[in-house]
Specification:
By secondary structure, this protein is of the alpha/beta class. It is 35% helix and 21% strand. The termini are far apart.
């Protein structure tokens, strides 16, 4: 028996009209699926209800994949796929497998010779890069920076210096409730002439995307606490 298809489903970045960020044909494809691998079932059910699933939600089969899922559990998650069923991999927000625990599952699906189909939808990282005005030809995404303060400062200085040397845009994110502290550390430790873009609440009505030099940011810092944010710097 041939494996089914693994569909990679981008989720909204917040409460927005689905038609604005996910094409209708993509929504229809998602609505036909019965099997899903999700990060948080409650959020996933809310999303699938908005999509308008063909089946009642109680008939939808969900398995959980998150940061606590071990590599030895991946094969079990793929059992419906290997039995010939199509499966949707649904991230909590944005694109699966990018700054997301789904990458290991996608790799395992490749090894099982399954078809992988990425669906169209919002990616906060690419949206932020597009809107930043910084170098979109050479860039690097670092995910989350170290949590410990001294290691974080060291990493930020390293990224600032690397950006100056290569003209490469450095992109990173943070857990929303730590955004404000990260922003303060950035303006304290980056060079005056480094450009910093703050891209918060992307695709939402109150989205905030501004690029200025560090020396300009020091006179005013926006309130981004608990707002999903992408940080980009380039010198």
């Amino acid at each position: 028996m041939h494996p089914g298809t693994l569909f990679l489903i981008p989720a909204p970045l917040g409460e927005v009209e689905l038609a604005e960020i996910i094409p209708e044909n993509v929504q229809q494809r998602i609505a036909r699926l019965k099997y899903f691998i999700v990060e948080h079932p409650k959020t996933a059910r809310h999303f699938l209800k908005r999509i308008g699933c063909i089946r009642p939600l109680q008939e939808i089969e969900m398995q959980v994949l998150n940061e606590h899922t071990g590599l030895n559990e991946i094969d079990q998650l793929l059992e419906p796929l290997l039995a010939g069923n199509d499966i949707g991999l649904l991230s909590e927000a944005g694109c699966p497998a990018v700054a997301d625990p789904g990458a290991n599952l996608v790799r395992a699906a490749h090894q099982k010779h399954a078809s992988i189909v990425p669906l169209v939808g919002p990616s906060s990282i690419l949206l932020a890069l597009m809107a930043s005005g910084l170098n979109g030809q050479g860039f690097r995404f670092h995910g989350y920076l170290p949590i410990k303060n001294e290691l974080r400062i060291k990493k930020i200085i390293q990224l600032d210096e690397e950006s100056a040397r290569t003209n490469q845009t450095q992109i990173f994110i943070e857990t929303p409730y730590r955004n404000q502290k990260l922003l303060e550390i950035l303006v304290q430790n980056c060079s005056d002439e480094t450009d910093l873009c703050i891209a918060s609440n992307l695709t939402l009505k109150d989205q905030y995307i501004v690029t200025k030099k560090i020396k300009a940011w020091r006179s005013y810092l926006p309130e981004i606490n608990k707002k999903p944010t992408v940080f980009l710097l380039c010198r």
